[in-house]
Structure formats: structure tokens, C-alpha cells
Amino acid sequence: MNHLRTLTILALAAAVRTQNAQVPAASTPTPSPAAQPAPSPKIYVTPPLAAAPIPASDLASIRAALPADATARPKQPRRLLIFWRAEGFVHPSIPYGVEALKELGEKTGAYTSVSSDDMAMFDPGTLAQFDAVAFVNTTQLKFDNPVHRKALLDFVAGGKGVVGIHAASDNFPTWPEGQALMGGVFHGHPWHGSDLVAVKLDDPAHPINAGFANQGFRLQEEIYQITGPYGRDKVRELVSLDMSKPENQRNGVLDKAGKPVVVRTDNDFPISWIKKEGNGRVFYTSLGHNKDIYFVPRILRHYLDGIQYALGDLTADDLPTASLQVKPVPALAPEGSRETLQKVKAAPEPPKTPTNAASAVKPSQIASEPLPVQAAGESALRDLSTYRYGDMAEAPFNVLESLRNGTAESRARLEPKLVAILKDSSATDASKQTVCRWLAWMGGEDAVPELSKLGASASGKSANAAGVTGSFALSALATIPVASADQALLNLLMSGNEDRRVAVMSAIGIRGTKAAIPELSKIAAMKSPVLSGAAFRTLAALRGADALNAILGVKAAAANVGAKDTAIIDAASGLLKGTGESLPDRAVAALDSITGSDAPPVERLSALRVLLSAQLPAGYEKAVKLLGDADYRLRLGAAESLARTVSPGKLAGIPWSRTPDAWVVLLKTLAQQGDSSSLPLFMNALGSQDESVRIAALEGVSRAGDAGVISTVTPLLTDSNAPVALAARNALAGIKGEDVSPRLMVLEGNSQPAAASVLLAVLADRQEHKAIDAAIAAMKSPEPMLQAAGCEALSRLATSGDLGQCLSLLPVVKERNAENFQKALVRAAVADPSPAAAATQIVAAFDQGDESRKEILINVLARLEVKEADDKLAAILASQDIAQRKQAIRALASARSEASLTLLPAVAASGQTNSEKILALKGFIDTIDTLPNSEMNRRVEGYGKAWKLAVRDEEKAAIRDAVKRIPAKKMPSTAEAKQLLLDISASATPAPSPTQP
Question: What CATH architecture is 3-23+41-323?
Fold first, then answer.
């Protein structure tokens, strides 16, 4: 993928290219002139992964998996930015993801795309060209330019979209708003790429899950653990790990440091979600680590539907999961099967009805004006009874919009027609299940009898369609706003097999039918673990003191004591949260007993949290005791619980030095809250002898501190412990307040070289431009450490108006700092209102400057790409100074610019020495390789020119290899160009003679 090369030149070149090269036209069918987007400003797109070609067999696998059509008709021509920059771990599958997303848009007509890893794409004017951004396995993106941060947030808030593929949740380590935008943060992958995992559909009927055909599945894939801002109260959960399956369990698994790999205690491990963000939309999925994920039709359909939602073309319910009145019944992974989606990748897509198949989206289609909402709903009812999962969702969406936007009277008129679908034996199960979901919130008394009939067939484990539809009916009875549903559920509870009664109890718990408490108490006392467990869960869900007392009064069979304990915990928690009542004494005693028992750690910690949330002394005492427990799970869980429930002032009295790992968890939890009241605790913890405690404390200082912490944190910048010193730097870079940077600048001016050097870096981290004078002064210092720090800070702070000052520093720049100084000159020149004038200024400096500094200026000129710079480079290449000529060739070869394509072949043809010709031709070939596929005719023309210039066998071999990497479907359009490629590919390199080495 040549990513290391890209990263080494990107810092210097990315800002330069912003104004000087054209976005490649996406290689899709050209829209009609009327549909063409406005002319784009010139921007730079980094080489499109040309150095890591995807094998032909893998390309064929991607293309075979592509859906034929888009699910939704684009409302207008759409453009997608596919962004693949990785500042952390670089996934080998990045080229596969980029190619798959590009071809998804091309084949289906859903969108055109541009791929890049250049941060300049987030300049506001550039970003505005797109309808959505897809982050494909991007990692640790700092997004430290505040302009780019604001541009992305405004982009989405204003109505556009963001798509995150796999490692996109490992971004924005220093930008909380970016983490919140994505919806969650990567916290390790307990499930590795070689692991078999079981996956469930949390919302099987959701349109973005349509490609999975209402079936959970297994997959060989790396699955992330998500923490941070994630929560089902914030996102609409679509897909997650099926934690009922044994292969997914990771309890007790430790990492290399002896810490648990699983930190979530709620068994919620999301894989895909969507969420509304302002007027825009976000789709994220962690699928995409293994390259063969991009060979699976059902996953590519999932991608496409998520992208179309983010673009604004696919209508999808994005109400957060926790806000749904009727929770969808998940589609679990099949029992016993070990077959993965990779093995069934050729499975056909879900069948479409003839009505919808006729209206399949073609690449050039754009949606017409919709019908009025009410008329659309009436019309769509005719098609609803034949609706199947995987069909175009036009009919159910039109009815749903009619119900949502209609009046109570119009909904009442539609209700009998919906109930008639439930009675219709020829109606599809998908249509009945959809109707059940609607009746759940708008149905009346007339719907209850039919829902009861269907509910009698419900079965939590049934694989047949009637059982699933029955479960939907019970879910509707759980929330339908009529009183008769309570009695209907009680009647269903009295009889039926275990599965049916369990499903009914779940509906009773959701509805809150307290009249069921006596019957539930009887069932809870049964020996059957299935029925007893369900009854305990339902009693806990009913909340209130009467339900809690009923649980406490049940004499549970020995096998069901654990279920009773869990119900006590849940019911007590529900009582506190739901009614605000205090806990009965015997509930407190029961919770205290569970906390001190030999129950599983999760159970003990859950009981502890209830005691702590009730502000009971017993809870605090138990938690402090558990901080020293031999079981790390209890230590860490107690620490987190204390941090979330006890005031920082009270926590300060705990002897934290005895249990450093628990205190790290406590400090990190408090740091996430960012409450200034925790600051004394963080400052106190800085005195720990434990490295991890001090680092966690510094993270808290960063989030909760102000200018008052500077004097305490600054000495740590030069701490002998490198990780602590780095954490101190990050803390000072992150603390808020207008007076922070001025104080740091004063401190920097009065500090010794070691501390002053780090303070300069901190000011650069904070993007404090006023510190540029301090950076210049440091460059003039006799201290090498300060010189390097000043030059590095200048490379990050220089901007418009700073070029003259930067050029004046040429005489004092040391060779070891030349690279950062070049970056500073480039930043200042590009930011100048007139890049041409800036280039003229650099040319003048070159003509008047010291010979020893001209190498720096040649490198800068090669990256400016304006006529004045190109003319000077041409003059240097024609000069008599061989050292300058070779430096100009090397600089152009590295720049991969338009000037490289013009000047390098001229040198290769008529350079003054053979070594210059060889060097120039190699740079020319490398530059041709970076041209996008959309400029294939130009690439071929370049290869032809290079072929004529090539003399050495290795040069011809390099050209031949480059030609062979051209994708078959991207071949040039002219017959002459095609023939040239065939001639190059077919040519043979002569065998070396016996005298050759």
C-alpha cells in the first residue's frame, strides 16, 4: 500500500497540494449535463493505493458480491468521499474496503466517489462538494486542525452524512466531539480476525438489515468492544454479538498485562448502528477487518444500505433503540451451525416481489416528486400484504409516514384495514409483523382479539414463521394503548408451553401489568429454571415495592436462587430509579448478602452498585473492602462503581496506593466525567509512585483542570519516566481556558532548555500561533535541543504572513532540522494569499542565499506547483551545478506533482549525465503510477513515453509491472492506448549474458 511513504511525505506535501491539483473524476457513467455538480475547486488526492494492487482473483470476488441495484433511488446525484488515512495501525484490508465502496457506487448508481488520505479534503470548501464521508479503517486521526473539526461537525449537522467502517471507531483520540459523532470508541478486540463469532440482528426488519434476510449468522471476523459515548439511548442498534452463544464468551480472559480484555459488564457488544446527528446521519459497522468480508454479498448490501441512509436517500427509522416503545425481537445466530457468511457468500439476495422488482433502481434514475403522505399511505396498503423482507420498502414506508403524520381519526380509519391483513391467511409474515409493530402504538380495542390469536402461536425458540409473527403480536399487546390488552396477556399466561409462557411474561413485563404479580409469584416458585427465571425477570421489570416484596417472598428452588438474586438486584434498582422510594430493610439485607457471597463477580458488583446508588453506608464499606480483593474483577468493578456514585471529596480519603490497578479505573472513570470537583483527587494521585496511576491522574487533569494546574504539571514534562512525561504534555495540551496559553508562553520563556523545548511542543499542540515568536527565538538559541524544538513548533504553526520571517532563519537552520524547516516554509507559502508571490519570494532567497541552504529551497519549490516555482526548477535542471540538478530531480521525484510529469521526462531524455537520466526516469515512472484510474489515457501516455526513454532492463521491468497492475475494467478508451499496453506487457526482458553479474 506504500502507506509508509505516503505518511513520510504527507506532512510536508498535504497542505501544499490543496490549491493546485484536480479531484479525479469518479469513474462512473457520466450524469446528464443538467445533473452535473458545480465545478470543483482544485484539491489534492493522494496516490490511490497503487502500490498495493489487489490480486485479480480478489477483485473478481469483490465484483461478484456487488448488488445489482441500489435499494433507494438517489434524490439527486450523490458524491461520497472515501477517506482511508491511518495514523495508527494500518489495516492490510484498506485497499479492499476502498475498492468495494467505490464499486458499490459505480455499479448501482447510488453515488460517485473520490478516495483520499489527505487531510486537506476537510477544508470547508472541499468538503462541501460531498454528500457523505466514509472513513474506511482510518485509525487514530488526530484531526488537530480546528478548521477541519468544525467543518466536519457542520457538514453533518447541516444535513450530510458520515459512514464508519471497522477501525473508524478508533479515531479522534483527542477530540471528544468527533468520538460522539461516530457514536462509540474502540476499546480493544476480544474477538480476533481468526475467531468464529455468532452475530444477531437486533432489529431484523430494519431496512439497513434487509440484506441479512431476517437471519442471524456466524462470521470469521475481528469484532470490537465499544465504549465511550456509545449507548442504546443514543444510537439505533442494528447488529451485535449474540452473547447467548458459547463461542462469544470471553469472561476471565486477560491481556498481556494481566488485565481483563472485556470491560463491558452489560453484554452489549454492538457491531452496526445508525444515528441522527443534527440534520445529518451516521452509519457505523465494525465489519471490515478481514479482506474476505468484502467478498460477501449480504455484507456489501448492508454497507450500501447504510451508505444510502447516510447520503439521505434511504429512509430508515433512526430513533434510538432505548426509546422504542416496542423492542424488536432479535434474530439470533442459528443453533449449532458453524457455517460462516464467508462460506455462503454466493447465497442469493432476498427475493423481491414482482411489483417491486419492476421498479428496481437503475444507475441513472433519480426519484420523482413523492405523493402526498396520506394518499401515499392509502395507495400503499394495497401492496402491503405482499411485502417481503428484502423488497423495496416503499409500501411499508408510505403507510408508516401516513400513520405518523396523520390525525387520530385518519389512523382509526386505517386500523380495520391493518387488522384485516392480520386475518388474511394469504398475507406474508413480513407484512403481518410490520402491522403488529404499528398497532403496538396506534391500535385500538378492535385489534386486541386478533393480536391475542396470533400471540397464542408465539414461541421464543420457534424457527417457524408463525411463531415469529406470534412474538410480534405479543410485543404489540405489550404496548398497545388500550386496557383490554392486560387481560388478554393474563389469559395467555395461564396456559401454553414453556416457550409461549416465557414470551407472554416478557410482554407483561414491558406493559407493567401488576395484576399478574400473584400468578408470577407462583410460577417463580416452580422448579423449571426456564419458567422460574422468566417469572423473576418479569417481576423485576414491574418495579415498585409490591413487585420487590413478591420476589423476596418467593421460596426459590435451589437451581433458581441465582435468578432470584438477579431479580432482587434488578427490582431494587428499578424501585430506586422508577419511584424514588427507599429500599425496604430486607431488600438491603439481601443485597448486602449477595455482595459478600460467593456469587459470580458480575452479580456481586451489580448488588454493590444498587447499594451505592441508594447512598447506603453498607455499600460504601463493601466497595472499599472490595478494592483490596484478590479478584481483579471485583477490585476494578468496585472502583468504577465508587467513581460513579460517591463524591470525589469522600473518595480522597481512601488509601489509593495499596490498589493501583483499581485506582487507575477510578481515575479514568472520573476523567471521562470531566468534573472540576474531581481535580483535587487527580492532583493528589500525581504523588503516586505507580506509573499507571500518575498517567490516569494526568488524563483527569487534562479534562477537569484549568490554568491553576500548570505549575504542578510542568515539572513532569521532563520526568525520567517517558510515558508520564508524555501524559503531562498531553494534559497541558488539553486543559481549557483562555489564560492557559499565555501562562505557558511566559513559563516557556523562563524555563531551562529541556522544559522549554517541551513547552514549545505543547503550545504547538494547542495551535497557539502567538508562540511563533518563541519558536523563532528557540531556533536562534545555541542549545541544540531548543533549536530542534523551535523548528518543529514552527513547522506546525507557520501560516499566512510568516514566510518572510521563516526565510530570514535560513542562515541559522541546522541540517538536522532541515526537514521541519521545509515544512514550515511550505505551510507559510501555501497559506499566503498569493502562492505565486510566495514562490517568487523563495526564488529570490535561493538566488541570494548560501549554497549550503539551497537544497532546502529546492525541496520547497518542488512542492509548490505554481509556474514561478516550476520555471526555477527548470532553470536549475539546465544549470552547470550537478549537485543542485540531482537535488531538483530527487525533489520532483518525491513530490509526484504536475511539474514532475513535465520536467522529469525531459531530464530522462537529455540529462547531462547518465545517473541523472536514470534518477529522473525512475521518478517519472513513480509519478505516473500515482495518477488516478480516472486519468487512464494519461497514464498510458506516460507509460509509453517512459518506455521509449527506458534503456536498462530494470527500467523496462518496472514499466511492465506497472502496466500489469492496471485493472481490466479500467483499460484506456482509445485503440492506440490499448495496443501500446499490449505491446509493453508482451515484451520480454532478454536473459542476462554470462558476463553480467
Answer: 3-Layer(aba) Sandwich (3.40)
